[in-house]
Amino acid sequence: MMLGEITLGHYLALSTLLFLVGLAGVLLRRSLLIVMMSLELLLNAANLALVAAARFKGIPDPQVAVFFVITVAAAEVAVGLAILVAIFRLKKTTSAEDFASLKF
Amino acid sequence: MEQFFFWSLAVGLLAAATSVVTLRNPVTNAVCLVVTLVFQAALFITLEATFLAAVQVIVYAGAVMVLFLFVIMLLDVKAEARRPIPWPKVAAVLVGAAAVVAGVPKLVAAFPAAREPLRWSAQSSTFGAKELGALLFTSYAPLFLATGVLLLVATIGVVVLCRRDPGS
Amino acid sequence: MIAYAPYLILLLPLLAAVAIRLFLYPFPRIAVPVSVGACLGSFLGSLMLLNAGTPAGGMAAPAVPWIELAGLKAGFSLVADPLARLMTTTVTGVALLVHIYSLGYLAKDPCRSRFFAELSLFVFSMLGIVFADNLITMFIFWELVGLSSYLLIGFWHQRPAAGAAANKAFLVNRIGDFGFILGILGAWSLFGTISFADLPSRAASGAPFWAATAVGLGLLCGCLGKSAQLPLHVWLPDSMEGPTPVSSLLHAATMVVAGVYMLIRVLPILELSWVTMNTIAWIGAVMTLLPALIACQQNDIKRILAYSTLSEIAYMVMAVGLNIPGPGMYHLVTHAFFKCLLFLAAGSAIHGCHEEQDIWKMGGLRKRMPFTFLVTWVGTLALAAIPPFSGFWSKDAIFAATYDRPGLAACSMAAGFFTSFFMLRMILVAFGGKPRSEGATHAHEGPPAMVVPMLCLAVLSVLGGILPISDFLGMKPDHPHHAWTLWLSLLLAVAGFFPAYHLYQGAMQDPLRVPILQAKFYVDEFYQRGLVAMQDGLGRLADAFEGWVVRGFLVRGSGVAARVAGQGLRLVQCGQVQLYAAVFILGALGVVGWLLGRVSS
User: Fold this and answer.
1) Do B107 and C600 touch (CB under 8 A)?
2) Percent of chain C at pLDDT above 70?
3) Which of these, B130, B143, B112, lies nearest to A60 by C-alpha position?
4) Phi then psi for A95, rounded to 5 degrees?
5) How far apart are CA C42 and CA C93, in angstroms?
6) Is the Cβ–Cβ distance between C306 and C362 less than 8 Å?
């Protein structure tokens, strides 16, 4: 099945793998900057799945969704990085382990 | 032909993504992320979404990653120190990943429509700017306007968050 | 017209009581005759009723419907069968004599209107018990009689002893009434009726043995309380705190025998179980003996008579237990005569000695109050069952039924011996010898109002043996009469006089000292200790419950539980964002997996 024709399933599998890579990054890296980059990977995986669906179903609506996702991702990155900068100014570090002050 | 492009782009994509997650120097990571985004755009083109491929490169790779690099420079982030790999955490994640991967064939088998093959042809319907624009400004107009407001709010938020206190 | 007589008899005293209570308190000169007149009216009505109708038949006055539920019908109907007629005549007759006596005894008491009002209330309540045709109306009047007794015992309420005695009487009665109510409910559930007319037929159709026993014992409890039998007898001696007319009327002749009357009414139920009958008979037998023993060592004249009353009532109870209600009622009537007489004579002696009740402080009254001395002798001979006085005939009828029960015979005949003993002791000490106190030196007879009733009762005590009571009631006992019961009991009764004469003739102080008898077998102390122990135990139990369960488990426990839960939940907040994210992803994966499972199946 794998080496035959390329089907929607292939694209979905690829999207899943990309998602998992991004997930690993979010959960395992300590530097918050890298975590944010991994978040971008997650979003891209979703975009890939949407576009594949648009192509194989023949409807344009998922592509409009992708449009919105990219826009919102941009806004999210901007705000996220602004927060990161503000925290860095306060704590002089970007390591996730140093931000556990909401402990019990 | 479709197969060749798909497989090469897929491998590249995954390789770049893995580099983003594993390498230690933040600038290297950022550059690898750019590469990933470009591979992604190429995959969009294989799916005949040319407009979106362009948008991806311009907005994502062009603007968002530049923002990332600026912040790296601003914060003067050094490369992370080597540290022992936290095997328990890694093992947990790998196990979860394996479980998910095992579920994909199941999902695919449940949808017969997922077996349609990819064929490029001159008559393939490509959705260009015109079609997308038409949809965007009619059916999804409210969402479009909301997104505008969202961007405005994000801008204000960023400005407020990055203000230095007077006198510091 | 005659059919309404029971209502008239019943309600006249009530009207008098209400009238006095509402209007006539400040006017004793009007209140007293009103009360006496009402009692006279009731007595005349009872006499008329006595002669009307066939002797063995019954007669019911028209009924006033009251409770009519499914399965329970209780109306206000008054039954006028021979038993009721006999009882009402006795009650109203003795009550009339006591009313007249009280004219003299309480002539100078400022609260006498209240006394006569309460006395009329009592007559009304007692007649209610007599005329009641079902257990529930009887119970209502039962409680009213208890109330009247409480009011009358505590008549001189400024004296703390009187108040305490009134409380004790009421409370001990209440305990008996609790069993009584259970018995009534049991009777209703077992037989489907509480009307005395229907009971014989329903009971004859049989009932489960132990259920009938339980019901019988429950009803017996009511009798134990009201008639002061073991173990609820403790209130009667204390009730002597009331004025002497009260003691003579309520606690000798009428109220205390209400229990016996009730038992006779429900005899069909009691007969169903030999356990019940034996219990009644043995309680009766034991209670003839024990108070007689106690009376041998008492020094208050009224207390001696009170213990004698306990003993005599026990004879009636034993008669019920032996299933001879006829002789039981016979003794009830004769006892009313001579016991009332003895109390009135004691009252006369007390009044004459200026309110002195201790027999060791009297003395020499034989010469100063000869009439009282004479009637006391008459009463004593009747009480000791010496022929030809009335007490002999009635007691002999009861002794005759013990011919095949040696235990009962032994107890009751021994009681006769001791009865003679302590009565002669009382007479010798109170009336014989020289005066031993100021009051006794100046003793004098009472006014005519006190003398006349005593005279009437003396005559009745002598002649009362003639009355054909068992025949009148249709309850003649049908067992053979053995001569030995008669001779043995008579011998013991006469023999009792000799030791008393030997010990007390001319004595200045009591030569005998038997502490256990003086302390009344320590029953009161036992109850007191028991009550205290029970209260203490209950208190401790409540405290333990409150301490452990309420304070500890509920209050502190909920606090501890909240704290422990909080501390457990705290551990979830680790502060590390990536851990939160990991848990979140796991949850999401779980949901997705479940959805996939549903989709693919």
Assistant:
1) yes
2) 96
3) B130
4) -90, 135
5) 9
6) no
| pLDDT at C421 > cutoff 60 | yes
What distance in Å separates the CA atoms of residue C467 and residue C94, rounded to the nearest whole number?
A: 16
| B117: preceding bond cis by omega (within 30 degrees) | no
In chain A, domain spans: 8-93
What's the CATH code, domain A8-93? 1.10.287.3510
Select from C445, C40, C124, C346 the least CA-distant residue to C32.
C40
Element (H, E) at C258: helix C258-265
Counting Cβ atoms within 10 Å, is residue C374 exposed (0-12), middle (13-18) or buried (19+)? middle
DSSP percent split of chain B into helix, strand, coil, nearest 5: 75, 0, 25
- For residue A2, how far is the Cα from the chain centroid? 26
Q: Is the dihedral of CA B70, B74, B76, B79 positive or negative?
A: negative
Measured between beta carbons, the chain B residues lying within 8 angstroms of A20 are 97, 100-101
The answer, for C597 touching chain B at a CB cutoff of 8 Å, is no
Nearest CA in chain A to C576: A100
Query: Per-residue confidence at B114, pLDDT binned at 50, 70, 90?
Result: low
Closest C-alpha to C84, from C114, C111, C50 = C50
Contact A25 B107 (CB under 8 A): no
Number of Cβ pairs < 8 A linking chain B and chain C: 17
Q: Are C228 and C310 in contact (CB under 8 A)?
A: yes
Given a cut of 90, is residue C26 above it in pLDDT?
no
* Contact with chain B for residue A87, Cβ under 8 A: no
* DSSP labels, C372-424: HHHHHHHHHHHHTT-TTSHHHHHHHHHHHTTTT-HHHHHHHHHHHHHHHHHHH
- Compute the nearest-CA separation of B134 from chain C (Å): 34
- Mean pLDDT is lowest, of C132-136, C186-190, C278-282, C472-476, for C472-476
Q: Which one of C563, C569, C574, C577 makes the best mutation probe of the A interface by having the most chain A beta carbons within 10 Å?
A: C577
Residue of C nearest to B92 (CA): C582
- How many interchain CB pairs under 8 A, A with C? 29
Query: What are the pLDDT digits (tens) for B42-99?
Result: 999 988 888 999 999 999 999 999 999 999 988 887 776 666 777 777 787 777 777 7
C74 φ/ψ angles, rounded to the nearest 5 degrees: -130, 115
Instruction: Name the residue ranges covered by the structural domains of chain C.
Output: 298-516, 529-600
**What number is the ipTM of this complex?**
0.89
| A neighbour chains, 3+ CB pairs within 8 Å | B, C
A63 touches chain B (CB under 8 A): yes
* C287-308 residue pLDDT tens: 999 999 888 888 888 999 999 9
Tokens found for residue C472: 């009148």
User: Which DSSP symbol is given to B168?
Assistant: -
Residue C464 has pLDDT above 50, yes or no: yes
> Choosing among C578, C579, C599, which should be mutated to test the B contact, i.e. which has the most B CBs within 10 A?
C599
Distance, in Å, from the CA atom of C406 to the CA atom of C408, rounded to the nearest integer, reads: 6
Closest residue in chain B to residue C582, using alpha carbons only? B93
C588 touching B (Cβ < 8 Å): no
Contact across the interface for A20 and B43, Cβ inside 8 Å: no
Query: Which positions in chain A have a beta carbon within 8 angstroms of at least one beta carbon in chain C?
Result: 23, 26-28, 35, 96-97, 99-104
The DSSP secondary structure of C165-230, one letter per residue, reads HHHHHHHHHHHHHHHHHHHHHHHHHHHS--BTTTHHHHHHT---HHHHHHHHHHHHHHHHHHTT-T
Which tens digit of pLDDT belongs to each residue from C363-381?
Answer: 778 888 888 888 999 999 9
Verify whether the Cβ–Cβ distance A96 to C582 is below 8 Å: no
Domains present along chain B, CATH in parentheses? 1-82 (1.20.120.1200), 84-168 (no CATH)
Asked if residue C353 lies in contact with residue C437, where contact means CB atoms within 8 angstroms, the answer is yes
Burial profile C538-551: b = 16 or more Cβ within 10 angstroms, e = fewer: eeeeeeeeeeeeee
